[in-house]
Amino acid sequence: MPIPRDDGCTLTGALSVTTEIERCATIIHGPSGCAHHNFSLLHALHAARDHITTPALISTDMSEREVIFGGEHLLEEAIFEAFSRHPDIICVLSTCVAATIGDDVDALCRIPHDIPVIHVPTGGFLGGGFLSGHINALQTLSHLAKRGEGSLSVNLVGEKTLEYEVQEHYREVSRILASMGVPVHTRFVCGSSLPDIQRLGNASLNILRDPSMVPLGTTLDRELGIPFVDSFPLGMEGTIRFMEEVGAALSLDVTDAIAEEEALQREMVRAFSSLKGKRIRFSTRYAEEGVFHPGYELAEMLDLEIHEHGNPVPVPDPFPVGTHGIRRLLNRWMRGCHA
Question: How far is CA 117 from CA 72, 104, 107, 290, 336, in A?
């Protein structure tokens, strides 16, 4: 039985959003262990992507005393410390401990300030996990945006910032969109600033990272009047379908762009023709028989036999994005099959 992909800490999910915002100070209102664990995790994952900037985190360092008598005074001190760093925005994340003892984090964040002080509830004991924290943070930040003019551009919404190939996925989506004459307006929130978030409403279409972001897409459609496509392009047919959906949503003729992409895909299949007839088995639990997965589409297109004693080949979750993502994956299959 696969482990749910949203399993994990709600706080970590929210931090994967707030720590991506430029000039944002994030306060973790809870024990120091919550901050230390997440700082170590984020630092390690960022280092693996050659991203050496350390997350800007402040802990209120709650102790047993605050668990008994309340910790709102610590949060006030942390907010003042955050202001001393001159950020553009402050995000306050409340932990399970703060939520359990009933600290009124909302009230402290509503006090008028010169910059936004945003409360993102992340008391995971109330239910949810990493994914709910991720979505809650994005939902909360989206309220900073205003309706705009709707220029011919798209927002990329809900990128999983801790994915190993997050930048490769972004470049591939940007390439496909550019082939249709559509620029990326804002990444919500990879590397974005407060002004970027406030200008979300100026795009004419939102492209969600995957269907798990549909609740957020629905919110942005309701509040900003921006429709959405529910996923990045996955698989050969999925990439063409993605282009058709974007073209239809923006009333664009994308016939030539699709023809070029299909030609690119045919060339790619020819380049990996030495895989034809190989026996393979997927070395991942996410590729289950009877369930659609782009891995099966690739196996059929390349005339591969899926067999329990075949060469182990990876089918990563999340699946690589677009045609170039598939090319990277097939290079790994070539090595797995010694082709």
Answer: 15, 14, 11, 48, 50
112, 142, 172 — which closes off a domain?
142
Residue 134, C-beta contacts closer than 8 angstroms, at least 6 positions apart: 13, 14, 16, 17, 158, 160
Asked whether 62 and 86 are in contact (CB, 8 A), the reply is no
Q: What is the pLDDT of residue 243?
A: 98
Last residue in a domain, options 142, 171, 187: 142
Q: How many CB atoms lie within 10 A of CB 142?
A: 19
pLDDT tens, position by position, 23-48: 999 999 988 888 777 877 777 776 66
In this structure, are residues 199 and 186 in contact, taking their beta carbons and an 8 Å threshold? yes
Identify the domain containing residue 175 by its residue range. 148-232
Residue type, 236: M
- 40 and 128 in one domain? yes
